[in-house]
Design a protein that fits this description.
139 residues; alpha+beta; 3 helices; 5 strands
Length: 139
């Protein structure tokens, strides 16, 4: 009887340890997912299997590179009026325009073409991109 009791106690201890191991593994997976989510652009970035940037990602980054080149403070980019092109070796081309309002209220339109190289990493970070060429012309 005491041997049966001891065997049952050992069996329960083994089952409990298996449960603890399963909880630790689940915790590690959960922490990994949360860190991935926190360092990414959101849930779509975590669940996305495509690591290469799409047209919208590239346009958003291109706007970040064009903003400092515009002299007037009040600028606006069109939401969907841009052209996107992709070359080999992670080279992307964006053509669009920016509207800026001067101190006297005049509106200026500046056309731009930005050639960007994606260096890898989170595609929403400006530091992961390099400007190959940028051309601007005012109308």
């Amino acid at each position: 009887m005491t041997q049966t009791y001891l065997k049952e106690k050992q069996l329960k201890k083994k089952r409990a340890m298996k449960g603890v191991y399963a909880m630790v593994i689940a915790g590690v997976v959960f922490i990994f997912i949360m860190v991935k989510f926190a360092t990414s652009g959101g849930i779509s970035e975590v669940l996305s299997f495509s690591k290469m940037p799409n047209a919208d990602d590239t346009y958003k980054i291109a706007m970040e590179f064009v903003k400092p080149t515009i002299r007037n403070g009040n600028i606006s980019f069109p939401d969907d009026k841009y052209q996107f092109g992709k070359k080999a070796d992670s080279i992307f081309i964006i053509k669009s325009y920016v509207l800026s309002t001067g101190d006297k209220g005049e509106t200026n339109r500046t056309n731009f073409e930005v050639v960007l190289k994606y260096n890898g990493g989170p595609k929403f970070l400006k530091k992961n991109w390099a400007v190959v060429d940028i051309n601007e012309s005012s109308e």
